[in-house]
Write the structure tokens for this entry.
Amino acid sequence: MNKRGIGCLHVVEPRVKRQGNDREVHDPVAACHLRPKFTGMLIAAGSFTEETADAIIAAGHADIVAFGRHFIANPDLSKRLRLNLPINRYDRSTFYGGDACGYTDFPFHDETQAA
């Protein structure tokens, strides 16, 4: 990839490993293995929290962390993370629907305080 001049690589880390009814979050592995081989911008995604995102960036395994599901439910996610505000829970049942439900009706933090 470096020889071809690819500037950005986006990897999705495994989210959970399942054993019976137990669900355990995986540690990031894709970015850790690819970082030594790829010198361009590396974006990691997949069930990161603020703490685990900070950790993978601090370790140098990723340059940026993406928060897809959390951005759907929190239009002001960066503000919430920066100010340590509560995070709206996302509703997976609305992710692939045919209307705006779940995409445009989650409140900003200021709106939840006014309610």
Summary: The chain has two domains: 1-66, 67-115.
